[in-house]
């Protein structure tokens, strides 16, 4: 186990890097989609609804296969890393959109009206009044989505990426030391996810004590 621990370290770096990129883009996608839904922009709202249903009801593995094996059939070539980030962003964007939307819809309409009544523009009311409260309400769901997306990176090995799952399966295939390889895999994911989980719990408590999200 100590002899091959460095392989898990390198795989963890790859997993964390691709996961961070996918999560960042999914947050951006989710925020844009939630604003489209909140303001009920006619055509875009329907497009966003279709995207959310399509994304949430298809496995990430299928999406990766489409990007990595399907698109080259029509001449579109994407690297393994690119497929991983695009697939994770596509999947995560829908979950983040629903998290942001739930936060926005939890804010009373009277707050928007009050902000407009004192002379603020729609953008200022959203920036200074609505969005900060919505974000605090959405934090538990957003943190849960972050952990979920990092765990979903376990399918990246399907597109020839040497992530944690790839290393574990490779070592099992070479040496048949299944228990040791899987134990190291579990430990690696715990090292990645436990600090995020603890940080999320701390952030939720801070927001609750500050009076937000109630």
Strand content: under 5%
Number of strands: 0
- Parts with pLDDT < 50 across at least 5 consecutive residues: none
Query: What is the CATH superfamily classification of one domain?
Result: MetI-like
Question: Can you summarize the main beta sheet?
Answer: none
- The CATH topology assignment of one domain is MetI-like fold
Radius of gyration: 20 Å
Q: Supply the helix-strand structural class.
A: mainly alpha
SSE diagram, text form:
Elements lengths: L4 H35 L2 H15 L3 H11 L9 H26 L3 H9 L4 H31 L11 H12 L2 H32 L5
Any overview of this molecule?
Helix 3 (60-70) packs antiparallel against helix 4 and helix 7 packs antiparallel against helix 8. The protein is built from 8 helices and no strands. The chain has 214 residues and is mainly α. The protein has a domain at 17-161: Orthogonal Bundle (MetI-like fold). The radius of gyration is 20 Å and the shape is flat. The model has no long low-confidence stretch (mean pLDDT 90). The chain starts with a helix and ends in a 5-residue tail after the last helix.
């Amino acid at each position: 186990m100590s002899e091959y621990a460095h392989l898990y370290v390198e795989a963890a770096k790859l997993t964390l890097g691709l996961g961070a990129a996918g999560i960042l883009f999914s947050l951006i996608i989710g925020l844009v989609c939630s604003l489209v839904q909140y303001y009920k922009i006619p055509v875009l709202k329907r497009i966003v609804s279709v995207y959310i249903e399509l994304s949430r009801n298809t496995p990430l593995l299928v999406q990766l296969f489409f990007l990595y094996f399907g698109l080259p059939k029509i001449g579109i070539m994407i690297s393994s890393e690119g497929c991983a980030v695009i697939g994770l962003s596509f999947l995560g964007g829908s979950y983040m959109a629903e998290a942001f939307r739930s936060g926005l819809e939890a804010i009373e309409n009277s707050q928007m009206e009050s902000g407009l009544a004192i002379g603020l523009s729609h953008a200022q009311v959203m920036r200074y009044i609505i969005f900060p409260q919505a974000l605090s309400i959405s934090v538990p769901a957003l943190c849960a989505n972050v952990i979920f997306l990092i765990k979903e990176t376990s399918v990246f090995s399907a597109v020839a990426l040497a992530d944690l799952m790839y290393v574990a399966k490779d070592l099992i295939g070479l040496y048949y030391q299944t228990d040791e390889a899987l134990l190291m895999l579990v430990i690696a994911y715990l090292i990645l996810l436990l600090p995020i989980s603890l940080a999320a719990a701390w952030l939720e408590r801070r927001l609750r004590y500050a009076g937000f999200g109630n």
